[in-house]
User: Which sequence fits this backbone?
């Protein structure tokens, strides 16, 4: 808004408010740059991931039913996802308990070929 008003308030080539038009966007860019640097330092570089914890998180994810919907059907997969979400239990465990798919049929639902049914080779 400051830049818009400064640009409108100036008179053709004799714009006395030209420094404002230059400084405000530059200050904004400096704030964004500082924010990105702080985010990188405190969040990106400071975070670590452990393979075991990531595997647990993926296995507990309700989103896995997307990979299972091809074998189970959309209606069953949706009901399974809702139950998993409300109960806080992993969808894979519910699938096994109900006998919807065997361990062999489940295979690796997080593999790259699972949602599409295609090989990545």
Assistant:
């Amino acid at each position: 808004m400051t830049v818009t008003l400064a640009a409108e308030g100036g008179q053709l080539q004799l714009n006395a408010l030209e420094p404002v038009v230059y400084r405000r966007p530059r200050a904004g860019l400096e704030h964004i740059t500082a924010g990105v640097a702080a985010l990188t330092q405190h969040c990106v570089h400071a975070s670590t991931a452990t393979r075991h914890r990531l595997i647990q998180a993926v296995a507990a994810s309700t989103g896995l039913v997307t990979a299972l919907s091809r074998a189970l059907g959309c209606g069953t997969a949706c009901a399974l996802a809702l139950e998993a979400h409300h109960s806080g239990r992993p969808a894979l465990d519910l699938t096994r308990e109900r006998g919807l798919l065997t361990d062999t049929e489940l295979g690796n639902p997080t593999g790259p070929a699972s949602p599409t049914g295609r090989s990545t080779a």
